[in-house]
Amino acid sequence: MSKTALPLQNVCGTEKKAIKKESLVKLLRWHFGHSDFRGKQLEAIHAVLSGPIPRFYLRVHGLLEFRFRGGRDCFCLMPTGGGKSICYQIPALAKQGIVLVVSPLIALMENQVTALKEKGISAEFLSSSQTLKDKNKIYEDLGSGKPSLRLLYVTPELIATSGFMARLTKIHARGLLNLIAIDEAHCVSTWGHDFRPSYRKLSSLRHHLPGIPVIALTATAVPKVQEDVIASLCLQNPLVLKSSFNRSNIYYEVRYKDLLDDPYSDLCNYIKSYGDICAIVYCLERTTCDDLALHLSQNGISSAGLNGKLRSTILDNWLSSKTQVVVATVAFGLLYYGVDDCRRMQFILGNATKKKSHSSSLEDGSSKKSLADFRQMVEYCEEPGCRRKKILQSFGEEVSSLLCAKSCDACRHPNVVSKYLEELATTTSFRKGSGSSRIYISSASDFNVEERHFSEFWNRDDEASGSEEDISDSDDAVEMAKTAAHSSKTSGRKIQDKIELLQRAEENYYRSKNNTDKQANKVDKNAISGTLRDSGKQRLLNAMKQNQHRFSDLEIDSTSAEKLENDCYKKYEKSGKSFYLSQMASIVRWLSTVSSDELSKRLGNMVGPVTEVVTPGAADYSSPSSSPIVPVVTRVVDEKVSGGIQFAASFSQDTILPPPILSFSEFINSRKASENQPSSSKRQSSDGVRKDLEKKTKYK
Ligand SMILES: Nc1ncnc2c1ncn2[C@@H]1O[C@H](COP(=O)(O)OP(=O)(O)OP(=O)(O)O)[C@@H](O)[C@H]1O
Ligand SMILES: [Mg+2]
Fold first, then answer.
1. How many CB atoms lie within 10 A of CB 628?
2. Which of 5, 433, 476, 618 gives 20 to 30 Å between its CA and that of 647?
3. How far does Cα 133 stand from its chain's mean position?
């Protein structure tokens, strides 16, 4: 039920007196029903209401010309749900005048304004979603001698318009502006996870509206972001307030993807087990976001992948519960941990560090920090010990693990977690450490693409990056191969070391594989199960049906889906589940852009499901410009050493026997042997990789 506003003179007396705590608590109780302030709320409110503006600032900006309203700038760092809004809502009620609140999302503004109105507090927001009539009503109130409005919520984009700034300047000149609150202030910083260019322009507020205190509020604790926010908003001698990031109502748990049969199904069940909840799932790549969102939707969970353009709309829908799950690409949320993901991230960050070490020291420092943060994250997942303690440590807080009170998996089920960690170490031992036992050889020409951006982490500025890159070579194997390639360019010794390392790794792999094979009753966690394949086929069928409008001249049925799935399976059967899933995601994405012609060509060049034998990669080469599966991950076979392999004269020929594939060691040894041959044949042999590719493309 709505309440009348508490008359100001009853609460605060005249403006000139410092406002006492009791008066502010009275306001808090009357309007919000909270018994007392929590954390640093009161300090923040005192600062913006009564703290002095530094003398030099007054001199420099000639603020004495304006009616001095008092108040000190404040930077307020409180965790999500910590109660930051009160820090500017109470000042709006404690003084005559208006508090201007800058907020990044229309849904956030709407929610807050509705909640304030229900409490009898006069608040409005201005956004493009409003009618002209509504806007004019607000402007009329602002233009009147004594506006009734206490809080006005606006977007940073509106602030950037000259028309709105002119209105603000008038309100300011009439002495009606009390405080400027910049909510979600980390959006100012390019170091933050949610940079909004229009936030960067908010420093204009300081220049156009001098003498008005500014309070910046955020839950993002990274020191670099804090510094950036303070500098970018031109906060003057701000009171910096930081609250603890311990959230006793959050339970932390890590689920190990490598120990799960099907992480997607596990996630579906997990979300369903909580009923009608809102959730955010963070993924490494955009393709995975889209694919997971599709998978969840197919399982009856309304969800949306978060991409650049639709970002605000999706978040708005999520906040208003129209969408249950948002799948986004930022680390550190619910966490499903997979060693493959870890290696992928390690590669991406390592590469960025290498590149940035050649550029400015600032950039170099930031990428090293990213790498250090990432290592911290890996430790969080792979080391025993309280998760809460580790999270707080990363925010610079030293706490006892007793604080956790068994509200993380490591404290509640220490034995289970140690067992998982042991299993994880066993399951992934052949993939971890300095070497890798998964051997992938990529063709020489593939190595040349190292400058291409093949992950959004390298290409985040370019939202419109080519779809072909988006959907193709995003596998660990490619990345590992590129690492090897990079090293090979820099030093001959290094490549020798790398080759030896890979040979050793391969031996370990086969040794461990033999052991695994011997234990017939032991389940291979990375195997691609029949169920997984069935669900894969269904996903492809659904994706094709979703895009049916573009394939109107094609008959889309389960056979087409089986063909695509079968092709993917044939190629990734040995690489394992995670590669298979990743490639399936790529195909789904490809289906969302491919033309009817291309799909028909691709399907036409494939053999039917399961029973027939396919030349590995044949379908890929049939239409290299449009295929989602650029054959960068290939076991390269040297024609000479493989004993005269016969390639099909044309790829329209479906069923030919696959060539025998050499192991890495066999390949290297045969290459060494060929190096001892006369120079003409040596060159031919050492160029085997490139030759093989040329040979294949010749037939397309
Ligand atoms: N002093 C208080 N006592 C009790 N509850 C409070 C107090 N201050 C705020 N709250 C409640 O805490 C909840 C979160 O507040 P608020 O939305 O302001 O948090 P926030 O820090 O802005 O979070 P976010 O980072 O998600 O924006 C609200 O339900 C609010 O009513
Ligand atoms: Mg908030």
1. 26
2. 476
3. 39
572 pLDDT more than 60: yes
> Cβ neighbours of residue 8 under 8 Å, at least 6 residues apart?
93, 94, 95, 96
- Give, using CA atoms, the residue closest to atom 15 of ligand 1: 83
Query: pLDDT tens-digit profile of 499-518?
Result: 665 666 666 555 555 555 55
Best substitution site from 27, 31, 41, 84 to test ligand 1's pocket, by max atoms within 8 Å of Cβ? 84
- Does the pLDDT value for residue 455 go beyond 60? no
Tokens found for residue 26: 């009275």
In our burial notation (b when 16+ CB lie closer than 10 A, e otherwise), range 400-439 reads: ebebbeebbbbbeeeeebeebbeebeebbebbbeebbbbb
- Atom 5 (ligand 1) nearest CA: 34
Indicate whether 633 pLDDT > 50.
no
Q: pLDDT value at position 264?
A: 84
Q: How open is the CA angle 600-607-689, to the nearest 5 degrees? A: 95
User: Under a CB-based contact definition with an 8 Å cutoff, are residues 480 and 438 in contact?
Assistant: yes
Q: How many CB atoms lie within 10 A of CB 480?
A: 20
Note whether ipTM > 0.95 here. yes
Is 305 a residue whose pLDDT tops 90? no
Q: What is the DSSP string of 238-259?
A: PEEEE-----TT--B-EEEGGG
Nearest ligand to the C-alpha atom of residue 115:
1
Task: Name the residue with higher pLDDT: 150 or 249.
Answer: 150
d(CA 554, CA 154): 50
Where does ligand 1 bind, in terms of residues with CB under 6 Å?
34, 37-38, 41, 78, 80-86, 219
Pick the ligand that lies closest to the CA of residue 249: 1
Task: Give residue 398 CA to ligand 2 midpoint distance, Å.
Answer: 25
Q: Ligand 2: distance of its center to the CA of 563 in Å?
A: 50
Helices (H), 119-262: 132-143, 156-159, 162-173, 197-200, 203-208, 223-232
Candidate of 32, 35, 45, 102 to mutate for ligand 1, largest count of ligand atoms within 8 Å of Cβ: 32
Q: What is the pLDDT of residue 428?
A: 62
How far, in Å, is the centroid of ligand 2 from the Cα of 109?
Answer: 10
Of all ligands present, the nearest one to the C-alpha of 87 is 1
Categorize the per-residue pLDDT at 291 as very low, low, confident or very high, splitting at 50, 70 and 90: confident
468 or 409: whose pLDDT is higher? Answer: 409
Render the burial of 271-305: b for 16+ CB within 10 Å, e for the rest: beeeeeeebebbbbbbbbbbbbbbbbbebebebbb
Helix (H) or strand (E) holding 154: strand 151-154
* Nearest alpha carbon to residue 345 among 255, 282, 303: 282
In this prediction, residue 458 carries a pLDDT of: 21
Residue nearest to atom 6 of ligand 1 (CA): 83
Report the length, in residues, of the chain: 700
Higher per-residue pLDDT: 475 or 512:
512
Model pLDDT, residue 271: 81
The DSSP bridge pattern shows strands 279-282 and 325-328 to be parallel
**Average pLDDT along the chain:** 69
